[in-house]
Task: inverse folding
């Protein structure tokens, strides 16, 4: 079946612009995560959605970052007034609630000039 | 989550078995051993996990020592496409409870050569 998809695959933007990154999780997966990975670094947790519960936003690095998940499926990560340090690969993962196996999308490579 | 130790890099010849070790001497009784890998420029990929019994799936086998202080991931017939960073993670199964964010250590860079 279809895996987690993300769009765009690459995004180049100018400093100060806003960007939106999209994640389509696996159908039926109620849990959704956003991570980011800087070059050569490990995963940095950003935000977690589970069903209709309030999201865990504890990993968002600043108030320029926000995310929403509409209808319990598609999620959008928005970065306002992008900075060069926001350049990274942004990864989305989803899983079934009762399991602990996360399935990752291919990521969006964000470059802020 | 318990700390894990992996060699920074390993080489393997194509077609041979790749055996990737992981030490987790502080593992707790309710913690599972998970393996993920990340191929260059791709998202992480789940491989296998286990608690105390050996496990096998279509991708790999996981051998956990009886004292559970170490484990080995086995790719039985490595191919060039198995070249990746392999991450061993020890964690409580978060399914159905808390959110279970993943954190990766440095992992092992496995290079499969012709």
Result:
């Amino acid at each position: 079946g279809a895996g987690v998809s993300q769009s765009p695959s690459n995004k180049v933007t100018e400093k100060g612009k806003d960007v939106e990154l999209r994640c389509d999780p696996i159908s039926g997966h109620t849990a959704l995560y956003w991570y980011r990975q800087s070059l050569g670094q490990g995963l940095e947790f950003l935000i977690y959605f589970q069903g209709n519960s309030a999201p865990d936003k504890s990993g968002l690095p600043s108030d320029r970052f926000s995310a929403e998940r509409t209808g319990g499926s598609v999620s959008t990560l928005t970065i306002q007034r992008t900075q060069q340090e926001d350049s990274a690969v942004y990864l989305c993962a989803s899983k079934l609630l009762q399991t602990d196996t996360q399935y990752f999308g291919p990521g969006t490579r964000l470059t802020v000039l | 989550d318990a700390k894990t130790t992996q060699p920074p890099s390993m080489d393997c010849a194509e077609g041979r078995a790749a055996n990737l070790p992981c030490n987790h001497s502080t593992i707790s009784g309710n913690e599972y051993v998970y393996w993920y890998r990340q191929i260059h420029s791709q998202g992480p990929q789940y491989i296998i996990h286990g608690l105390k019994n050996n496990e096998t799936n279509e991708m790999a086998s996981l051998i956990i020592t009886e004292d559970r202080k170490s484990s080995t991931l086995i790719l039985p017939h490595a191919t060039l496409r198995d070249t990746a960073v392999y991450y061993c993670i020890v964690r409580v199964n978060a399914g159905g409870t808390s959110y279970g964010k993943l954190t990766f250590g440095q992992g092992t860079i496995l290079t499969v050569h012709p």
Q: What stands out?
A: The first strand of chain A starts at residue 5 and ends at 7. The mean pLDDT of chain A is 92. The interface with chain B takes residues 4, 31, 33, 35, 42-43, 45, 48, 50, 56, 59, 91, 93, 95-107 of chain A (CB under 8 Å). The CA atoms of residues 36 and 90 of chain A lie 4 Å apart.
